[in-house]
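Continuing the series of single-chain predictions for the mutant panel. This is the parent chain; the variants come on the following pages.
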Amino acid sequence: MSVPTAQRRSYMRADDRRAQILACARQVFARRGYHPTSVADICSAAGIGRGTLYQYFENKREVFVAVVQELLDRVRSVIAQRTAVGDLAGAEAAPPQLIASYCERRLRRILDAVFADEASLRLILREARGLDGGVDTLIGELDAIVLGALVSDLQAASALGVIDCPEPQLTALYVLGGVEKMCLSALRADEPVDLDKIVSVATQVELFGLLSDTTRGKKEAKR
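Parent structure:
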């Protein structure tokens, strides 16, 4: 005799069950929004009863905080594992396009950690900001970690002579603000978020500005 799905799921290990609930909750929050989502919606998506969810979380807000905490922990881990720019031998002699390609990959890795999927992206950019109960604090930590990583990269690259960046903090805010605006614009238009294109645009503006080679040559000739 086959065992009903609900009964089979009841034997899931505690860590796996918690992870399953959070994965389903992230999708539901992203699709429906935080406030319209109910505990019943999360339970339905996870295929569990309320009693099972309450074994792990006291309420909907606690589930949401745990989802955001997961994202924060993932970003911390990715950034901690990155090679420091200052440790890259020969970076100052690399050709510009190679430097740009490296910077794109480096920025993309951070964004992939923040926006592991479109649900995470929608959650962070549309639902999490401004919520109380500890959520806003976690988002602030997430912003600070990502900003700090980019500032550190800019400072190290400037010290190596790869770029000329007298204001790394403002430059990092400018780049990340632009990335967020491009993502939000796509979400509001209900269009796919092309992170490859967004990273490429952000990196090109960050490293090379908007002057064409011809215009830049004319400017240099006048000096």
